[in-house]
């Protein structure tokens, strides 16, 4: 019930549910598990403060807030935008309204405040949090995960729980220790670098996406944080970084080319990786579920993981509660979780993964043609099919290689 208990219940206490990681997805999962009837839910977090340092461009749609029972607040929504502008290397532009632009367009968060707020929502449902507490290994007995070995300020101890949920983010070790999956291939990792720039000149009513060789295999983003302030960053496919240039070098070159940005002042820097891998075959084993970035539900095209992770978190919390209440937490019993989140998210994840695989091969001229073809189209819908149809009307040769996706 408290965000930081005075006396950590180290030795004997056994939990209904242990969540590893107090990112937004871990806290939201814990909140829905508690709301659905679990009394003893603990979230452990290795950092000393929830939400910082921020490693995110903070762009989200907020269309899913109601479903997740999140009340909009100016405390954590820094800006709202009208839509997204996409730019090709030659400067062709298309503008897409936020209704159809997808899960990363609509608002720009203050992630540090947002993550804390989600933790508070969980605490309101009597979830306990323990900070500066790092999971070091999973404990497995007879093939079932029964808890984790953890450490806190030099002290090592074990935490037992009926069910463990790994919500430990992109670098999830819980998934690896449990043998659920392997490391991600370099071609499926975006290496990201971002500055928060202030005193810049740009259009703060839109999020901006620059495609092509400015960010090989990824894109450059400008996400508004105010009239003259924005998150300016990029993601580059790790396998395309040959050692001669870093992601930061690419970003510095991009900023240097843009008059409105080059005189800005840096107030923050972020480096991090994003998985753009397809979803794993399974995110469960006996006594264990994975959720959020740890379950690799990041959109492979945009690299956005908050919206998908949040939708998955609600399902995870509900199904975790059911499984623990019934006393059945084996992989078969957890298959309802797998089915429900896959029904909701998997088809789009696979489609966007395939689209990403094609997009990383495109040359600058092809991006020019695509954006040119879309620039005068009435984009009332943003499906793969509708986009390919519009591109095909102007450049039929371009859509041939995408046809198998249809
Ligand atoms: C540069 C960058 C830009 C991004 N931009 C966007 C964007 O604009 N929009 C969007 O939707 N997504 C974006 N993402 C992705 C987004 O940040 C993630 O999808 C989101 O944070 C996932 O939340 P999570 O709770 O699953 O994981 P995280 O937010 O990573 O939280 C995991 C938590 O687990 C903790 N933890 C890890 N290991 C342990 C351990 N062993 N013991 C205890 N605690 C542990 C970590 O400290 C962390 O607090 C971006 C990512 C990066 C790197």
Summarize the structure.
The chain has helices spanning 24-35, 98-101, 111-123, 174-177, 247-257, 259-262, 306-326, 335-359, 364-375, 384-394, 396-399; strands at residues 14-20, 41-44, 59-60, 77-80, 83-87, 93-97, 107-109, 128-130, 133-141, 144-152, 155-166, 189-198, 206-210, 219-226, 229-237, 265-275, 284-285, 288-290. The protein is α/β, with parallel strands linked by helices and 406 residues long. The strands form 3 sheets. Strands 1, 2, 8, 9, 10, 11, 17 and 18 form an 8-stranded mixed beta sheet that branches. A 7-stranded mixed beta sheet has the order 6-5-13-14-15-12-16, with helices on both faces. Strands 3-7-4 form a 3-stranded antiparallel beta sheet.
């Amino acid at each position: 019930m408290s965000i930081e208990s005075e006396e950590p219940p180290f030795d004997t206490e056994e939990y209904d549910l242990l969540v590893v990681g107090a990112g937004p997805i871990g806290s939201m999962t814990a909140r829905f598990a508690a709301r659905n009837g679990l009394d003893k839910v603990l979230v452990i977090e290795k950092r000393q403060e929830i939400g910082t340092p921020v490693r995110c461009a903070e762009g989200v749609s907020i269309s899913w807030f109601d479903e997740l029972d999140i009340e909009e607040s100016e405390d954590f929504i820094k800006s709202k935008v009208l839509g997204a502008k996409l730019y090709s290397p030659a400067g062709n532009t298309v503008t897409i309204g936020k209704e159809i632009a997808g899960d990363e367009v609509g608002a720009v968060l203050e992630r540090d405040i947002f993550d804390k707020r989600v933790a508070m929502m969980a605490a309101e449902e009597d979830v306990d949090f323990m900070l500066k507490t790092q999971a070091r290994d999973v404990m497995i007995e007879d093939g079932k995960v029964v808890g984790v070995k953890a450490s806190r300020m030099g002290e090592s101890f074990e935490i037992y729980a009926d069910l463990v949920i790994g919500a430990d983010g992109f670098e999830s070790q819980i998934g690896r220790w449990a043998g659920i999956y392997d490391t991600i291939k370099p071609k499926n990792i975006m290496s990201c670098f971002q500055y928060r720039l202030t005193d810049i000149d740009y259009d703060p009513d839109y999020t901006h996406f620059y495609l092509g060789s400015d960010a090989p295999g990824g894109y450059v983003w400008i996400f508004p944080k105010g009239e003259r302030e924005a998150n300016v960053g990029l993601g580059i496919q790790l396998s395309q970084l040959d050692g001669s240039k870093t992601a930061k070098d690419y970003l510095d070159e991009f900023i240097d080319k843009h008059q409105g940005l080059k005189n800005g002042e840096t107030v923050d820097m972020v480096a991090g990786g994003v998985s753009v891998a397809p979803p794993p075959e399974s995110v469960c084993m006996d006594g264990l579920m994975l959720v959020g970035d740890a379950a690799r539900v990041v959109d492979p095209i945009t690299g956005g993981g908050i919206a998908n992770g949040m939708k998955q978190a609600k399902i995870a919390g509900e199904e975790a509660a059911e499984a623990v209440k019934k006393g059945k937490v084996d992989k078969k019993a957890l298959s309802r979780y797998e089915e429900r989140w896959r029904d909701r998210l998997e088809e789009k994840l696979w489609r966007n993964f395939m689209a990403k695989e094609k997009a990383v091969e495109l040359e600058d001229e092809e991006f020019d043609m695509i954006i040119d073809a879309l620039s005068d189209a009435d984009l009332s819908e943003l499906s793969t099919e509708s986009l390919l149809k519009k591109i095909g009307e102007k450049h039929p040769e371009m859509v041939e290689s995408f046809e198998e996706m249809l």
